[in-house]
Design a protein that fits this description.
- This protein is of the alpha+beta class.
- Among the domains are: 143 residues, Immunoglobulin-like, CATH 2.60.40; 61 residues, no CATH class; 130 residues, no CATH class.
- Helices cover 32% and strands 17% of the residues.
- The strands form eight sheets. Strands 7, 10, 11, 14 and 16 form a five-stranded antiparallel beta sheet that branches.
- α1 runs antiparallel to α2 and α9 crosses α10.
- The longest helix has 76 residues.
- This is C2 domain-containing protein.
- InterPro entries: C2_dom, C2_domain_sf, PH-like_dom_sf, PH_domain.
């Protein structure tokens, strides 16, 4: 046997229906004795095939090639059948056998990737819509088509099925009453759903005899077997289709699982990515937020610092200025080649360029290099936006001569806070010098070119121990009287007029009071070393004599002890002390005297507190007023007692002049006749 061609055994053709001569079936004249088939057909690559060859070169690695070659082989066989008058059924049987072996062969290949797309077309799996003629198990004719595969054209005898297959095949069989045994199948009515297996078996036997069984032995079914109707016989699936279905199902299950895992992996990846992006976004947001908050804090701190500095610059603070020396000044007197210089220190507002204060140094005679003793010019109040101007002037009989001017702005933070000692060059005129009355000074500015420099010293006073500002208090005469009596002088206390606003400065243990801001010399200077102030809190509000008939007593915390000629005056002063505010102040070793009044001596504990001196002054003035009221009230009561009866209207008129806090709130009934309240 050569590899190029193979001689096949003779294939006997089954007789066709209707070819009967004289009552018997006649064999066809043309029978295939030898059939030349190309060695490229896949049937020759099965070891168990009778037509197998041992050529290792012919091997298909994919199902695509196998399917394509199957189709090519089928066309060749069809062409051979037409040319050599080959029976179509024999060719179809060979094609079906080749198809099954090919499917078994290609099922062993692990290179299949998509089973759904590799299914064979219908025109390849079936031969012109006709089913196979031979049984797939016994290879005997099966004209009755007892069992047919619903997916391909394979037919089987019912007796060729295994017990398990037969059990699955008969899962829906029901017992019905049998039909006549010799009921015709062809030409009559089809078997009903309740037909017995015996009648069906006889029908199949008669069909086999009628068609011509092809020499095979007859197969009879058991009389106990029952069959389903014809429309329910298409439920059998051959082994090849089961394997394909299981493979497809396995592949589809695996693919579905893979797609499900891929989808869930993608979903989980998206969720993880979203969470990670959210975390990174929050982390970035927190980082940006911290940076923004830090920047805002820095900016807010910078703005607040600038506001505080601007506010502190606007606040006035006391400052001491000294002019120490002047060097290389220009010649003003041509006769003796010298000058008689003095320095005018002025304070100007940088915004309005107005002069607020002026101080003059002493005059140095006939010199160009001079020195001054520290005179300590106290500026009662200067802000951080002011400018200190030093103007050097030569004293003349007719008109003073301008020698030079220098300006020191206090906008410099170090100079404003700490001050210093430095030299300043004399330059041309920048600020007009005015007198204390805001009139322009009589100075000649255009004759001499400025030259030389000044040595000045600026000492800002500490803001913790020094303070300045406007004060709302009593008249300056009262303040002057009290302060002067503290050093031994005696003056009469004038009547208290309306309150005036004056300027006060506390520095270096002294309290200086100016009539107005802009004065260079204080009106009153009080040494705070001899002034001691104590602050006493009252234990509670005491009842007035009108609310209680008991005489009021002096609380133990009261520090004022009064030595008078009359007990009534003593009680009146005690009442005035008790009806004050929660704070009481007293002076120690201070004598307030008048020409025809009694003498008051006050004692207080030794407590230094110089910040409330104006409250002390206001307290004693208010106390003096209350003493006068109590005296006038006691006199009016004594007069009413001496007169006797009086009208209610006259009583109201007389009591209306008394400025008592109890009378202003509610009027109490008239006191008992003959009793005098202290």
């Amino acid at each position: 046997m050569s590899l190029s061609s193979t001689t096949l055994p003779a294939i006997t053709q089954s007789p066709r229906v209707g070819e009967e001569r004289d009552g018997e079936v006649k064999e066809p004249e043309s029978q295939i004795k030898h059939l030349e088939i190309s060695t490229k057909d896949p049937i020759f690559y099965r070891r168990d095939s009778p037509y197998a060859i041992s050529d290792p070169k012919h091997f298909y690695v994919s199902k695509y090639d196998a399917v394509a070659h199957h189709a090519q082989t089928k066309e060749e066989m069809k062409h051979l059948a037409q040319e050599k008058w080959v029976n179509a059924m024999a060719v179809k049987k060979m094609a079906m056998w080749m198809r099954k072996r090919l499917r078994e062969r290609t099922r062993l290949k692990p290179v299949v990737k998509n089973l759904k797309s590799l299914k064979e077309p219908k025109e390849i799996s079936k031969w012109e819509g006709q089913r196979s003629y031979l049984c797939d198990r016994c290879m005997l004719p099966c004209p009755g088509a007892d069992v047919t595969c619903e997916h391909c054209n394979i037919v089987l005898h019912e007796s060729c099925l295994t017990e398990e297959e037969l059990r699955e095949y008969r899962c829906g069989v029901v017992d019905t009453e049998p039909e006549p045994e010799h009921a015709p199948f062809l030409g009559g009515s089809p078997p009903s759903a309740g037909s017995s297996s015996r009648s069906l078996g006889s029908s199949s036997r008669s069909l086999n005899n009628f068609v011509g069984g092809g020499g095979g032995r007859r197969r009879t079914s058991s009389p106990t077997q029952q069959r389903l109707p014809e429309k329910q016989l298409q439920t059998y699936t051959c082994g090849f289709c089961k394997q394909d279905t299981e493979a497809d199902q396995h592949w589809f299950t695996a693919e579905k699982k893979r797609l499900w895992e891929a989808e869930h992996h993608q979903i989980n990846a998206a969720l993880i990515g979203r969470v990670l992006r959210g975390f990174l976004s929050r982390f970035r947001y927190k980082r940006y937020q911290r940076a923004v908050v830090r920047f805002q804090a820095m900016l807010r701190r910078y703005i607040e610092r600038r506001k505080f500095k601007a506010y502190r610059r606007q606040m006035k603070r006391p400052m001491i200025v000294n002019v120490l020396a002047a060097s290389d000044m220009p010649v003003a007197n041509r006769d003796n080649a010298s000058a008689d210089p003095y320095v005018i220190v002025t304070v100007h507002d940088s915004m309005h360029r107005e002069q607020t204060l002026r101080f003059d140094t002493s005059v140095k005679q006939k010199t160009l290099d001079c020195e001054w003793e520290p005179q300590n010019f106290l500026i009662p109040g200067v802000s951080g936006t002011s400018v200190l101007v030093f103007t050097v002037v030569d004293e003349e009989e007719m008109r003073d001569q301008f020698l030079g001017q220098c300006a020191v702005p206090l906008t410099n933070g170090d100079l404003w806070l700490h001050g210093g000692k430095f030299d300043v060059d004399l330059e041309d005129l920048q600020y007009i010098v005015r007198t204390h009355n805001k009139q322009e000074a009589d100075i000649a500015y255009e004759k001499i070119t400025p030259a030389g420099w000044l040595t000045v010293e600026i000492k800002p006073l500490c803001s913790l121990h020094s303070v300045c500002g406007p004060i709302e208090g009593p008249h300056i005469d009262v303040l002057s009287t009290i302060t002067k009596t503290s050093i031994g002088a005696v003056q009469n206390i004038s009547k208290v007029s309306q309150k005036n606003s004056y300027w006060g400065v506390i520095h270096d243990g002294k309290a200086s009071f100016y009539r107005r801001f802009g004065d260079r010399t204080p009106k009153v200077v009080v040494p705070l070393s001899g002034l001691q102030v104590s602050k006493v809190k009252s234990t509670g509000r005491h009842k007035s004599p009108h609310e209680s008939s008991k005489p009021s007593h002096i609380p133990p915390s009261t520090s004022a002890r009064v030595a008078t000629r009359s007990d009534r005056l003593r009680r009146s002063s005690q009442l005035a002390t008790e009806t004050q505010h929660k704070k009481e102040f007293s002076l120690k070793n201070v004598d307030v005297s008048s020409s025809n009044r009694q003498k008051y001596v006050f004692e207080a504990p030794t407590v230094n507190d110089s910040r409330h001196w104006y409250e002390v002054v206001d307290y004693w003035i208010q106390k003096h007023k209350q003493i006068k009221r109590m005296r006038s009230r006691s006199r009016s009561r004594a007069y009413r007692d001496s007169v006797g009866t009086f009208s209610e209207r006259g009583y109201r008129d007389s009591m209306g002049s008394v400025n008592s806090p109890d009378r202003s709130k509610s009027r109490s009934p008239s006191p008992t006749r003959g009793s005098i309240s202290p």
